[in-house]
Design brief:
mainly alpha
Length: 323
């Protein structure tokens, strides 16, 4: 078939398809049920035009229609996926801010002991060994030796990807302990959060006093923004369970626990997501010795600012929770 005959036969179809694209673009509506079949037919026309070596102008015109059709046909699925993610994040942030008293309590239980223990171990080495044994302290020093090829925990795994899996397992286990401990009237959550704060403080003070600041702080600052925040949030979720058991109000304790758990789980979804990010950064970014210390510290500071802003000040959390 000659090109002129080809154009005459399908010109009306192409114009109708183009008009449909313009109308859908202006209205923002999704394509009608007949659009996928029309799109497939247009793809066949483009394939025929290329196979028969029709003019570049015609091929370019059909290709433009096909690309626009593809965008219109598959864009709604992308919008739905992005919309669901944004909705899930908004729900997490709304729940987080609604229960900020538990988050503040968990944060204080973590930060204050960490600061006190950090200062104490820096000035008095004997305090370190009240929480960490001498072999553990020596192991910590070897982990952050500047001569190491990779900074951080000793690697049984051969690749960063395997370490990524290890960090996910390790981080989520701590978060789960912080959350599940709330079932014991909140005592378990308090103990886990408190212990992790004391342990971080002891390690920080000891390594600073031992002269490993240039490797330790650049290592922890990046992924710590997500990991430590997630542990605090997990502890807050556990405390919500404990508070429901201690003070159920007019509800039966089992019913109060059920309602608190439904709320707390929303926090755990967000905390788990943050721990995945933390594990990725710890495996592929924090442990690297090729990156300048100044870069790690700068990026780490920006990540801390971002996490705190996102959790407590971003407009995403202002969305209403779906009924």
């Amino acid at each position: 078939m000659r090109e002129r005959d080809f154009e005459q036969r399908y010109a009306e179809f192409w114009k109708a398809f183009e008009s449909g694209l313009e109308a859908a673009g202006k209205s923002g509506q999704t394509p009608d049920k007949g659009f996928p079949e029309a799109y497939r037919q247009l793809c066949n026309h483009l394939a025929m035009a290329r196979q028969r070596d029709y003019s570049e102008a015609l091929v370019a015109y059909l290709n433009r229609l096909v690309m626009a059709g593809h965008h219109l046909l598959y864009q709604p699925e992308s919008r739905v996926g992005i919309g669901r993610l944004a909705g899930a994040l908004a729900l997490f942030l709304t729940t987080l801010r609604r229960n900020r008293r538990f988050v503040i309590c968990s944060a204080l239980l973590f930060l204050l002991p960490a600061l006190v223990m950090g200062v104490g171990t820096y000035h008095d080495e004997s305090i370190t060994y009240s929480l960490i044994s001498p072999p553990q302290a020596a192991e910590m020093e070897s982990m952050y030796d500047p001569a190491n090829a990779r900074i951080g925990p000793e690697r049984d795994a051969e690749t960063d990807l395997e370490m990524f899996g290890y960090y996910i397992q390790h981080n989520i286990s701590i978060a789960f302990q912080s959350f599940a401990g709330g079932i014991f009237f909140g005592v378990g959550s308090v103990v886990v959060v408190l212990y992790n704060g004391l342990f971080l403080g002891a390690v920080s003070g000891h390594l600073t006093q031992a002269g490993f600041s240039e490797t330790f702080y650049p290592f922890v600052i990046g992924h710590g923004a997500f990991e430590l925040t997630a542990i605090v949030i997990s502890g807050a979720a556990g405390m919500m369970l404990g508070y429901a058991l201690i003070s159920p109000g007019r509800l039966r304790r089992l019913e109060a626990l059920r309602r608190a758990a439904a709320e707390a789980v929303k926090l755990m979804y967000g905390a788990t997501f943050m721990l995945f990010i933390a594990a990725f950064l710890e495996a592929f970014w924090s442990s690297s010795t090729s990156l300048p210390v100044a870069l790690k510290l700068s990026v780490g500071a920006l990540l801390w600012i971002f996490v705190l802003w996102f959790c407590f000040f971003s407009s995403l959390g202002e969305r209403r929770e779906p009924e």
